[in-house]
Design goal:
Layout: E1 13-14, E2 17-18, H1 43-53, H2 58-69, E3 73-79, E4 82-87, E5 95-100, H3 106-116, H4 121-126, H5 132-138, E6 147-150, H6 160-175, H7 178-182, H8 188-209, H9 232-235, H10 238-246, H11 252-270
Antiparallel strand pairs: 1-2, 3-4, 4-5, 5-6
Helix pairs in contact: 1-6, 2-6, 10-11
Length: about 270
Amino acid sequence: MADSERPRRTHPSVGNVIYANFGNTTKVSTPKPAVQKETRTSLASMLLIDAATTATDSERVKRGRAYARNGNVVNLEFTNGRIIAAVAGSQNQPFNVDVVLPPRNADQLNTVTQLLLEPGSLAEAKRGKLSQQLAETMICASDEQVRFLCDCPDFAMVCKHSIATVFRATERIDTNAQLAFALRGLDMDTIEKSLQREAHAKADSAAQTNDGNFWGDKTALPQLPNPKIASALDDSDLDALHKAMRSISYTAIDELRAVADIEEMYVFLTQNH
C-alpha cells in the first residue's frame, strides 16, 4: 500500500494546535531505593580508626580506605600489642606496615579480668560490645599515641597503607571480638575458664566458712519451755459447742449426745496408748 493510501492517526486540534496524548495517564515505574547495608563499628574499632585518621589528611584516608576495600591488604596478623600487614601499592612488592599500640602492664591486664566479672560483661564482650574502659585497655585511650610504621616512600606520620591496614583490621575485629583481646595477648576462652574457677573457689570457700554455722553464730539456744499439760475441754467454750450442735440436732437429747460424744472422742485421742 502506498504511503498516501495508509490511514493517518488523527489527533484533536484547535487552530494550529494539535493535542496529542495531552492529559493521558502514563504509568512510570519508580526504581526502588538502594538498600544500604548497615555497618556496625565496635567501640574498639572506633578508637583505632580515630587514632589513625586524626593523624593524617583526608586524601590519605580516602585512598587508604579504597585500598582496604579493593583487597590491597594481602596479609594481616594480630599479635601482642601490634597489627602487622602487607599492603600492595604502586610497586611490585607490597609494603610492610606495623601498627604499634601503647604498652600495657600486668596490673592493667588484670583489670580486664576484674571488669569482666561484672554481671553480663563477658557475654557482651563476646558480642564485641566493650565498655569504654575495656576498649581503651584493649586499644588506646584518647591521650595515648599509636605508632604507624611503613616502609613506603611516604614520610607522613600515617600513610595510606597504614590507613588501609587499620580499616581492614577493624573489619576483622567487628566480626571476631576475640581479635581485640588477642592484641593484648589475651584469650577470651581462657579468661572465661579462669572466671569460672574463681567463682567456684569463692563458693567453696563460703561453704567451708559457714560449715556447721550456716544460720549465724554458734551461740547455744535456750532450753525449750515445758508447759503444764491442760485439758482442752477445760479451756473450751461449752456454750458455743452446745450452740453449734443445736443447729444440727433435732432434739435437745440429740444435742447433749453430740456434745458427750465429742468429749469422749477427745479423751480417747489424748490418752496415752
